[in-house]
Design a protein that fits this description.
This protein has about 450 residues and is α/β, with parallel strands linked by helices. The protein has a domain of about 190 residues: Spore Coat Polysaccharide Biosynthesis Protein SpsA, Chain A, CATH 3.90.550.10. About 55% of the residues lie in helices and about 15% in strands. Strands 1, 2, 3, 4, 5, 6, 7, 8 and 9 form a nine-stranded mixed β-sheet that branches. Helix 7 runs antiparallel to helix 8, helix 13 packs antiparallel against helix 14 and helix 17 runs antiparallel to helix 18. The longest helix has 21 residues. The protein is globular.
Length: about 450
């Protein structure tokens, strides 16, 4: 009988690990969870779920940790997941069928990244609307998808490469193995928690930079550095990584052109940015993102009419890609056209009512203009779409607006909900005490 192992590496994932393990219960014959230095109850959660656990001393090398996890597995096949992922039930059925008579030595599963805004860009272009159907994703209106090698035969020479964004694909090629697509979806929620993701970026950037310095002729190392530098807005390293990648390899992922051009623009190297954007592949999937980048560049060049036209064309071509709404609204605000900026953001929200970044921009616009009454109303509406959004600020603004309207009871309820989500927020606590005392 074919046996299937689950292989994971984790760190401080007590909140998310249980749901991940539950998604493969009944499918895998063993669950292997390798901890890389947790300080919370991660190992206890894994043990309670029946997983076999191990510890790994962290050495800034994800591939090394993955290798150690694979070595603990005993099954004929191995499924690889992260703690912020869930295997779709239909995917479990597809895996069972595939392993009865496997057509390949490995299978490519679809990774579906859930996102809180259409302003994000994937490797090949923008987001698309969430197709729905998976519990817990109702407030996450956008996704990007890509295939990844996550189901493989166990083999001693099957090892990961890359200290960050590690891959099995090079080992597959060296073994002469074949990977086939499989109709199975892994739901990935990490990108839906931007604050948590941002907390990791300093570490990721440091590892990516060290690997790129150690392997300057490796285009994948340069690409990993570009990704991490772009997230941190480290534009110098980002531009250098893009240029290094293109010197090493003629074909490049879309993000090399887009992030590289943005880095050059932010550095004031506008003609180089323009030349790089001209080289970017223009496809239906990339068109809106390219137009948005064009709009940013034209505004930086002082070509306002061409810039605005590019933004509007991007919006017309893909109203679910909300980055041009945000970019154009910010430009209007800087031009002291707050009314037009507000109308544009509201138009974006009419089409994309579950977009977190549009709500943040709308609330922030009113607050920046000193219109606290409007900011409070906007924050109230934003909380209806994202009850846990705003990091406490939306709850404060909404509570102030309710108090000004004499709605003390509703204000107290908003503050209670805010403190349930952000218990350490001092301003929420101060307001709650103030409302309780009647001194508002």
């Amino acid at each position: 009988m074919v046996r299937l192992s689950l292989s994971m590496i984790v760190r401080n994932e007590a909140e998310r690990l249980g749901a991940c393990l539950a998604s493969v219960r009944g499918l895998v014959d063993e669950m292997v969870v390798l901890d890389t230095g947790s300080t919370d109850a991660t190992l206890a959660v894994a043990a309670a779920a029946g997983a076999r656990t191990g510890r790994f001393t962290w050495i800034d090398d994800f591939a090394a940790a993955r290798k150690a996890s694979l070595e603990l597995c005993t099954g004929d096949w191995i499924l690889i997941l992260d703690a912020d992922e869930r295997l779709d039930p239909a995917g479990a059925a597809a895996i069972r069928t595939a392993l009865v008579r496997p057509s390949a030595e490995g299978f490519l599963l679809t990774i579906r990244n859930y996102l809180p805004s259409g302003a994000y860009l994937g490797v090949h272009g923008g987001t698309r609307p969430n197709p729905g159907g998976f519990p817990g994703t109702e407030r996450l209106a956008y996704v990007t998808e890509f295939p990844a090698l996550r189901l493989v035969r166990r083999h001693p020479e099957l090892i990961y490469s890359g200290r960050i964004h590690e891959l099995l694909d090079p080992a597959f090629e060296s073994l002469g193995w074949h990977a086939a697509p499989l109709a199975a979806v892994i739901h990935h929620f990490g990108k839906a928690e931007p604050e948590r993701e941002q907390a990791k970026q300093g570490t990721y950037f440091r590892i990516a930079q060290a690997e790129a310095e150690a392997h300057p002729a490796d285009p994948r190392a340069q690409y990993n550095l570009l990704q991490e530098a772009a997230i941190l807005e480290a534009w110098g390293p980002c531009a250098e990584a893009a240029q290094a990648f293109l010197r090493l390899q003629s074909w490049a992922p879309f993000k090399v052109y887009l992030d590289g051009a943005r880095a050059l623009r932010e550095l004031g190297r506008l003609e180089e940015a323009e030349a790089l954007l001209r080289r970017a592949p223009a496809t239906p999937e990339t068109r809106a993102a390219l137009l948005t980048a064009e709009g940013d560049l034209r505004l930086a060049m002082g070509q306002e009419e061409r810039g605005v036209s590019a933004f509007l064309e991007a919006i017309d071509g893909d109203p679910h890609g909300t980055l041009p709404f945000l970019r154009l609204a910010e430009w209007l605000r800087r031009k002291n056209e707050a009314g037009q900026a507000r109308a544009l953001l509201q138009a974006g929200l009419d089409q994309n009512p579950q977009d977190l970044l549009l709500w943040e921009a709308l609330v922030g616009l009113a607050a920046a203009e000193g219109d606290l009454a409007a900011a409070g109303r906007d924050a109230w509406d934003a909380l209806a779409a994202f009850p846990g959004g705003g990091q406490g600020l939306w709850h404060q603004l909404a509570a102030h607006a309710l108090l000004r309207g004499g709605n003390r009871t509703e204000a107290a309820e908003v503050l209670a909900r805010g403190l349930a989500a952000f218990p350490a927020d001092p301003e929420l606590r101060r307001l709650q005490a103030q409302v309780g005392s009647g001194n508002d």
